[in-house]
Amino acid sequence: MSEINAKRTVAQRDANRPINATGFRNSISKGWGPVDRSVNLPAGLAEAAAAHRAQLRAALPGRRIAVAAGRAPVRSNDTDYLFRPDSDFVWLTGCQAEGAVLVLGSNGEETLYLRETAGPDELDFFANARDGELWIGPVPGLKDWSEALGLPCRPIEDLPAGVRGAVPAVMSTYGVEPLLDAVVSTGPAALYELRRVLSELRRIKDDWELEQIRAAVDASVQGFADVASELPEAIRGGGERWLQGTFDRRARTLGNGPGYSSIVAAGNHAPVLHWVRNDGAVREGDVLLLDAGVEVRTLYTADVTRTFPVTGEYTAAQRQVHDLVHKAQLAALDAVRPGAPYSAFHNAGMQVLAEGLKDWGLLDVSVEEALGPDGQQHRRFIVCGTGHFIGLDVHDCASSSAEAYNAGTIEPRMTLAVEPGLYFHPHDETVPPELRGIGVRIEDNVVVTETGIDILTEALPITTDGLEAWVRSHLPA
After folding, report:
1. What distance in Å separates the CA atoms of residue 77 and residue 84, rounded to the nearest whole number?
2. What string of pLDDT tens digits covers the 477 residues of the chain?
3. Residue 387 in 3-state DSSP?
4. What is the C-alpha separation between 378 and 349, in angstroms, rounded?
5. Closest Cα to residue 190, out of 202, 179, 198?
6. Are 79 and 120 in contact (CB under 8 A)?
7. Strand partners for 65
8. Which residues are within 8 A (CB) of 22 and not within 5 positions of it... i.e. 6 or more apart?
9. What SS3 class is residue 155?
10. Burial (CB count within 10 angstroms: exposed 0-12, middle 13-18, buried 19+), residue 212
């Protein structure tokens, strides 16, 4: 296209935009009444966030710290994915405003920087399709967020002045907010240290956080029941996508949405650890591996898995595999105790699985050799671990040091997902034909107590008999 034609095309396009019409500009800025911009936060959120900030200051005394919420990534052209703020930022503020930045001063000062709402007399009000209120609806302003959170709030344009100065240097979450990255230089060591400290603080949940996780699990249990009731429709042709939509609708209704991409894996898809395509058929005789969790509106998520027969009855081979995984799950849950090594429940579940695989003739070495550091032959059938932290992230506290995570100790108020499984791929010629295409995972969410654990997912059965009865109880009469 020539330069002249290009200019003509732009001119023609702009001529049809009301933003350039004087009459429109005069009209659009007048006659607007007040709107509700209030922030409706759950009870206790602001207090919990303030306590979290105090924990961070105590862990990094005298440091200047900046943590950003981030921005929605582009999905395609001029459309974005839904915004979901950085988990560390949410833990420290309870705020979900896109582009916001929290700055903690070295002397205890706290300031939240965010974008002020554009009024009707400003161009952004009607001309900005991404942020303008005429396009996206009323948005809380600085005053609204300040009143809700008990934090001083300033315009994001003031951020450079708020972090200016070399002493002490600012530790920040690099790569989350371009404006913050432009005005603060945080080296890799300082970035790692900040994320590590935040992750390790987040391992221990307070009462308010435990309430959020319980609510996420309860909503997820409802979602699993919804899926069971829709199994006939999936078999008639709706397939995995129908069931994904069923669970995700519940997640969106009771919370913010799914806490991660739901795994709805029927038949030969069940051995695929992260089957998130969910585009397969559901057939009579299949087992369905459903790994899904509701993220509540405060952004805490559950992470639950059950593997159940779509018509209410396991085959002999499916039952065989499920019973072994169930045995491993009981051993793993029994090993989750305060004071125990974090690796204890992982090792307990793996011991049971390796012994079972040996009994089935699927290990050509001893159980002891397989479980040794240079063996691990049993991991062909379970390449993942058997659990992790849960919370604001489905794999929570992931930036913790190895000493605090894998080599750490289980403590009260930790929240864990415990999830042994076995996965026999349909093209794995090392296993008997009757086992090929069977994948089973059982995943419970637990809170560590002073004496043991509280299993939050106990409303969902984990035995073969229990799951058969559970499925049949939800099928239409």
Report:
1. 19
2. 566 555 555 555 555 677 778 888 888 888 999 899 999 999 999 999 999 999 999 999 999 999 999 999 999 998 999 999 999 999 999 999 999 999 999 999 999 999 988 888 888 888 888 888 888 889 999 999 999 999 999 999 999 999 988 778 899 999 999 999 999 988 889 899 999 999 999 999 999 999 999 999 999 999 999 999 999 999 999 999 999 999 999 999 999 999 999 999 999 999 999 999 999 999 999 999 999 999 999 999 999 999 999 999 999 999 999 999 999 999 999 999 999 999 999 999 999 999 999 999 999 999 999 999 999 999 999 999 999 999 999 999 999 999 999 889 999 999 999 999 999 999 999 999 999 999 999 999 999 999 999 999 999 999 999 999 999 999 987
3. strand
4. 12
5. 198
6. no
7. 104, 171
8. none
9. strand
10. buried
| Amino acid, res. 415 | T
Joined together, the tokens standing for residue 301 give 């998520």
Nearest of 50, 47, 148 to residue 96 by alpha carbon: 148
Q: How many CA atoms lie within 13 A of 168 on its CB side?
A: 15
CA distances from 400 to 204, 233, 351, 357, 416 (A): 12, 43, 26, 33, 15
Bridge partners, 294 (sequence order):
258
